[in-house]
Amino acid sequence: MSPVLFVNGLFLLCWIINYSEAIKPEIHAFHFGRMLKSGQRVSVMCAVTVGQPPFTFTWFKDGTVVSESETVTIRNIDEFNSNLAIIKLGPEHNGNYTCRVTNNGGSSEQSDVLSMMVVFPDPTWR
To answer: Is the pTM above the cut of 0.70?
Structure first.
């Protein structure tokens, strides 16, 4: 379609400008369970509820970027969701976990503390 229109003997020039301001992402809060025990599996989802892709997801534990290992996996499920999974929970996994999501509009974070229960064996009486 041409940007030039002819109306009642006058030339009109018009352009349609598609402008959309990048909106900072918003993240749905995630929570670890409160009764976690050694050896269990646990996973949390970082889900973007507002904002336009592309998004960059970054997971942190106690302020340090989380790296995948034999017991920790990170999977970007689709362009709006990232999953952090701990396959075999141990004391080394206790800490404050943060998901940071960034796009052209800015970045947002959500955090939760993973605190594993300590289970002591039943006492034996002699």
So the answer is: yes
